[in-house]
């Protein structure tokens, strides 16, 4: 199990290795990630990874381009619905 820490509430959730961050949808009360399409198409779920970026799967080119189009450039921004968990991370909702 790996720890996901949500900021600014500091809420911590444990999820098993290899799951998608969409699993957080029913785990959080505060700092809940606003999932929409869950397929990388709507831009609702933008997060900023504050720590542990290497513990997520690599960002695909399509995801990177979409994030830039939404105004979120930089390696720390991800679409939560496109993230697979491989270690502990600290996140916050980006908007
Ligand atoms: S939920 Fe639509 S892009 Fe992530």
From TrEMBL:
Protein's name in the database: (2Fe-2S)-binding protein
Domain 2Fe-2S ferredoxin-type: 2-95
Top-level taxon of origin: Bacteria
CDD domains from the UniProt entry: fer2 (cd00207)
Organism placement in taxonomy: Bacteria, Pseudomonadati, Pseudomonadota, Alphaproteobacteria, Acetobacterales
């Amino acid at each position: 199990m790996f720890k996901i820490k949500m900021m600014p509430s500091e809420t911590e959730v444990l999820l098993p290795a290899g799951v998608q961050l969409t699993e957080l949808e029913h785990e959080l009360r505060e700092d809940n990630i606003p999932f929409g399409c869950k397929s990388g198409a709507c831009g609702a779920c933008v997060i900023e990874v504050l720590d542990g970026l290497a513990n997520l799967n690599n960002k695909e080119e399509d995801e990177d381009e979409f994030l830039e189009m939404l105004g979120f450039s930089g390696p720390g921004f991800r679409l939560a619905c496109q993230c697979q968990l491989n270690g502990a991370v600290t996140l916050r909702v980006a908007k």
